[in-house]
Amino acid sequence: MASPPDLKSGATLRNAFGGVLALFIIILIGVLAFSIRLFSVIKYESVIHEFDPYFNYRVTQFLTKNGIYEFWNWFDDRTWYPLGRVIGGTVYPGLTLTAGTMWWILNSLNIPLSVKTVCVFTAPIFSAAAAWATYLLTKEVRGTGAGLTAAILLAIVPSYMSRSVAGSYDNEAVAIFALIFTFFLYIKTLNTGSLFYATLNALSYFYMVCSWGGYTFIINLIPMHVLLCIVMGRYSSRLYIAYAPLVVFGTLLAALVPVVGLML
After folding, report:
1. Which residues, in sequence order, are CB contacts of 93 under 8 Å at separation 6+?
2. Membrane topology for this entry (predicted)?
3. Sequence spans of domains, the chain
4. What is the rounded average pLDDT for all residues in the chain?
């Protein structure tokens, strides 16, 4: 028996309102994640904290001033003194390239921010993106309510805040987002069997490899999940589509990162 038209329209309106409300809440969560990480800037000033973040800032300065070719071939005699350091072959370039690209885009739009300012605010910006990625991941598994709950928990969890406050310009600033987003795309591919999402998953994995040595979490956990599915008799074409492009395409891309190479 078909439902009356007024019931259908009422359900449609409720779904639309729920979607708009969820979007509004997730935007507020992103604003919260960004805002609560600005305490050091508000209380003191816009500065880079600690040794490693300052080294990353120096590398980003060099990249924006001299270009990517010089960056890959730069021998920095002020680091690891007196041995020096070949920057292109010893750093995970994802953080530097991300901040450098943001600086270039902003200056192309006639927003003349300094390199230091972009570096200081990179982590808070990506903390909001990480909260949104967490929402997408959890929503894919358990629904909208669980996704919103997970997003706000990630936005305020102290262990993540300590690695993503303004001025904490280290690899985790962008890598946590890349890690969560890669897992989201993997689950999305499992649920849809879409080769498009599988390709995005491989690209996201490549970005993760570029950003942080923690890519080993992904390259170990996902094969373990696939093996467990096979052992439990839950192999399917969607599992194959989710895993094969990630291993083949993602590994080939990851090998292009000099610090990783073929030692995957």
Report:
1. 71, 210, 257, 259
2. Multi-pass membrane protein
3. 46-254
4. 88
At residue 198, what is the residue type? A
Going from the C-alpha of 62 to that of each of 36, 52, 196, 259, the distances in angstroms are 30, 15, 36, 19
Query: Could you report the per-residue pLDDT of 221-253, keeping only the tens digit for each?
Result: 999 999 999 999 988 999 999 999 999 999 899
CA distances to 120, 177, 230 from 191, rounded to whole Å, are: 38, 21, 16
95 Cβ contact partners less than 8 Å away, ≥ 6 residues apart: 56, 122, 169, 170, 171, 173, 174, 175, 211
Task: Using DSSP, state whether 91 is helix, strand or coil.
Answer: coil
| pLDDT value, residue 8 | 59
Q: What pLDDT is attached to residue 117?
A: 92
Residue 59 CB neighbour total at 10 angstroms: 23
SS3 75: strand
Determine the Cα–Cα distance for residues 81 and 59; give it in Å rounded to an integer.
16
pLDDT one-digit tens code per residue, 195-216: 999 999 999 999 999 999 888 8
Look at residue 78 in the predicted model and tell me its pLDDT.
84
Q: At what angle do helices 5-35 and 144-156 cross, to 10 degrees?
A: 10
